[in-house]
Amino acid sequence: MISLNKTIAYTKNWKHTFLIALLLGAVVPVLLMTLEPFDSSNSFAYKYLILSGYAFCIIIPIVSIHPIENYVYKVQTNRWFILNECIYIISTLFIIFVFSFFYHFFVVSGLSSFTSELIWNFITSFGLPFTPIVVPLWLYLRSKYGQIEVPSYDKANTKHVKQITIIGNNKSESLTIFESDFIFAKAQQNYVDVYYNTEHGMQQKTLRSTLSNVMKQLPKAWQVHRSYLVNLDYLKTVEGNARKRFIRITATEETIPISQLYYKALNNRLSNSSQELQN
């Protein structure tokens, strides 16, 4: 089962968002002109020009929603989850359907009055048939141009400032530590092993929980792999190649596998940290 709290790549760049909007905006008019579904084969004045107008029904919502999704991305400390992507796609798709309805109603059909039932009939009869074509391409483009960002190293973040309590599925299971003392967590079936720093070195506590539940309680935790959460302040090296990638963190010799997107982001973090130390 896919965790809705899994971090995925996010398309933050305005240039890429415009490009995605333009590509998707071109798909629907081309389909209408070539396949001629829904009686679009009927001849009428300026047919191709009018059908091309559907592109704006896609471009405008995607571009208009981008500042909102960028704000959510920033609030979530530059993290984008599968749940965010699902909400974004569904809500933006609905707005696209509504824009397309009004364009179809007033411009293409030239009608003067409508009801909510007409909107719903349009969505189910005209909008949904295009969904299996547009949405997979949309998701592919957002993944292709998206990236994962990780915060730069900040020495102030390593100081003991804030205490947090991690609670397992059983309320009696809990762990209270300084936020900066969390090192990494590892999922083991229905349990999560939490490793943290103490005066006597690294300690470990096992909680009956899921990785996604633990991540909600750890602001400094980054899910670099489906089975691991890591405090990036303990990042030591990024190693591996295109087929096998992993990181090493201080306080342990255990290697932690990472995804390809994190490989690039963590390499950039280490590179920037080294430059800051040299300056």
TrEMBL record:
Pfam families: LytTR. Keywords: Membrane, Transmembrane, Transmembrane helix. This is HTH LytTR-type domain-containing protein. The chain crosses the membrane at residues 16-33, 45-65, 86-106, 118-141. It comes from the Bacteria. It comes from Formosa algae. The lineage of its organism: Bacteria, Pseudomonadati, Bacteroidota, Flavobacteriia, Flavobacteriales. One of its GO terms (molecular function) is DNA binding. Residues 194-272 form the HTH LytTR-type domain. The keyword Transmembrane helix applies. InterPro entries: LytR-like, LytTR_DNA-bd_dom.
